[in-house]
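Q: Please design a sequence for this.
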């Protein structure tokens, strides 16, 4: 795998390149020692964001184990900081990763967990996105009724925001669903 320069973060959470185990080292205790501000003025919340972004880079490079390790590091920090918003965001991203890995059931579970957290936070746009992501996986598993329910909820969440919440993506997924069940008229309307 490619090396990733993280020496400024390693002392807080541990190296991310080539983790020793699929889950990576558990360095949670070390994180707690530096709350809320680490050495050199680095905020631990910023480290959670950095791990999340590193996960995205690994995911895009199809380095799925390294991506999972980075997302889990971000999630551990977010849980420790009680940052529910970032927990939800990372859970949704883990759902996307698990979908790419062919782990659809895990993907659905993480997307729906993220959606419920975002609902409690009244983050309608985030909830709508997570529900759309869950519906995409449900369609892949041919669980069309569940997918339709999630898409209806996603549309209701995103509608107040119009294009800013990328509502068209949810309608594209709905169109795919209608096409999959053979309703071409409904698929055309959803487009």
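A: Design:
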């Amino acid at each position: 795998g490619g090396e990733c320069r993280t020496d400024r973060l390693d002392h807080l959470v541990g190296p991310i390149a080539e983790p020793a185990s699929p889950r990576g080292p558990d360095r949670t205790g070390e994180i707690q020692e530096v709350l809320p501000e680490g050495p050199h003025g680095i905020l631990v919340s910023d480290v959670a964001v950095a791990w999340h972004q590193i996960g995205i880079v690994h995911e895009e490079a199809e380095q799925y184990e390294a991506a999972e390790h980075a997302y889990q590091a971000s999630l551990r920090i977010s849980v420790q900081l009680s940052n529910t918003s970032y927990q939800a965001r990372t859970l949704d991203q883990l759902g996307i990763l698990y979908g790419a890995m062919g782990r659809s059931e895990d993907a659905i579970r993480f997307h729906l967990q993220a959606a419920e957290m975002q609902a409690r936070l009244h983050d309608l746009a985030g909830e709508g996105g997570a529900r759309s992501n869950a519906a995409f996986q449900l369609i892949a598993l041919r669980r069309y009724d569940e997918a339709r329910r999630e898409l209806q909820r996603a549309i209701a969440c995103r509608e107040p925001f119009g294009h800013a919440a990328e509502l068209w993506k949810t309608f594209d997924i709905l169109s795919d669903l209608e096409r999959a069940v053979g309703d071409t008229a409904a698929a055309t309307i959803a487009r």
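Q: Thanks. Anything notable?
A: The chain has a mean pLDDT of 79. The chain has ten helices and no strands.
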